[in-house]
Write a structure and sequence with these properties.
The structure holds 2 protein chains of 2 kinds.
Chain A lengths: L6 E12 L2 E12 L3 E5 L6 H8 L7 E6 L2 E2 L5 H6 L2 E4 L11 H8 L6 H14 L1 H5 L10 H13 L5 E5 L7 H18 L2 E5 L3 H7 L2 E6 L2 E7 H6 L1 H7 L3
Parallel strand pairs in A: 3-8, 3-9, 6-7, 7-8
Antiparallel strand pairs in A: 1-2, 1-4, 4-5, 9-10
Helix pairs in contact in A: 3-6
Chain B lengths: L1 H31 L6 H15 L8 H27 L7 H22 L4 E2 L8 E3 L5 E3 H23 L1 H11 L1 H6 L4 H26 L2 E2 L5 H14 L4 H19 L10 H12 L14
Antiparallel strand pairs in B: 1-4, 2-3
Helix pairs in contact in B: 1-5, 1-8, 1-9, 1-10, 2-3, 2-8, 2-9, 3-8, 5-6, 5-8, 6-8, 9-10, 9-11
The chains are: A alpha/beta, B mainly alpha.
Amino acid sequence: MPEIQANLLELQNVVVTYGVINALQNVSLNVSKGSIVTLLGGNGAGKTTTLRAISALVPVKSGQVLYQGEEITNLKAHQIVSRGLAHVPEGRMVFSNLTVLENLQMGAYLRKDKKKIKSQLEFVFTTFPRLQERAKQIAGTLSGGEQQMLAIGRALMSEPQFLMLDEPSLGIAPLLVKTIFEKIVEINREQKITILLVEQNANLALEISDYGYVLETGRIILQDRSYSLRNNPDIRKAYLGG
Amino acid sequence: MIEFLQQIINGVGLGAIYALIALGYTMVYGVLRFINFAHSDVFMVGAFSGYLFSRFFQIESIFGGVMVMILSMGLCALLGMTIERLAYRPLRNSSKLNVLITAIGVSLFLEYSFQIKLTKPLLFPALFPVKSFLLPGGIILSSTQILVIGMTLFLIVLLQYIVLYTKIGTAMRAVSFNPTAASLVGINNDVVISFTFGLGSALAAAGGILYALNYPSIEPLMGVLPGLKAFVAAVVGGIGNIPGAALGGLLLGVIETFVNGSPYSTYTDAIAFILLIFILIFRPAGLLGKVTVEKV
């Protein structure tokens, strides 16, 4: 069971402000090792900001981010990656001017062991065969779904233990969404990579996750096991379409 | 016809130097989206450090000349990185206008601090053996022209190799496209930006020395006009585009040489800016620049 295992990531009373606006107010959450945890909430609830705070893309005003029990609050973004966290950002942010292969090589920027990089590349290509077919293609010419696969593949190239995914289904054909979610589960089960998932499609997110947090205007208003959240009448009404 | 060919050769020789300087403007623009106006003064410092290092080596020798170039390029790379570290990095998150004004400040600082000591122009030594070759048909090709063109070609090919096929070069392109995404894969943007300044400044130093071999009178304000023209070359080729900067430089050198050989030679210095106006009206992204549409 996930909750009896150690916490891989822990947020304690994290506050993030944009100017005078509080984007996150005392957000505390735990992600246990090996689990899939999802963050739900409407637009502007603070889901993306939570991921950006963990990745040090926005400064944490107060509170702490702990990873494997060590404080990583306000390290530089590139140092966070070296700790074993990877972040697939909102909007995918693939390097459109580089080839698919170069994108993946950049994902392994901090890796030194050439053999391991090569085997990791093979793993990414087995997971997403489409990327192998398009390896020499400029990433900007890929479809939205393929770019999402590339963004996930690039994050996997850093050999993370912890993966954050921001809206992987956004703007993608429904058929591909299914494939991508299957891959996310596969990555979690087979590679033992812990996942923190932000997703608009709450149905899908609760289906594959173990635990969920619900954010509203920068606060956590509810947290529970995913199947309980799925059966919670308030959640059904607000996020699952009745 | 002979005169036409002769002018082409002269123009390419001049244009190669503009190209070397233009590369620095375009690379820095690529990663930081601002014009480093102090770049033309790094070019000037390149010529002066060539003058300084030439005292330690035998002049008019290939070995000595190459050593002087390498040392000056190294020194100017350090200078460029220092300028970035001290003047631009503290302003990384402020508005582009602040950085631009700072760049002009750094430019004036370099020019006038050199003027404190140097009140008269210095005579730049002939670093390499000088010879002239008479080609069939009466075209004259000097060894300096061969050196300038050959050295520029070599440096541009080397630069293209670094940018396209090395890890740090790929990282430069990644930072240039999206610094946030670059930091998310573990790239330290500061290191890449510093490297870019070093590379661009080394090329400017090479340009400064090659320029001084052609026009041996060197003084603290010598970078101003070639620097502005190289900036025009970078814009003409498409700012941020490396082959574009090389093309823009060559084109500008050739056009300028032809104007200089025509009855309108008084407009030699003006032609670059006339070209700039036309490019900005008819092809604002530059010859090789693409108008990019972002895919969301």
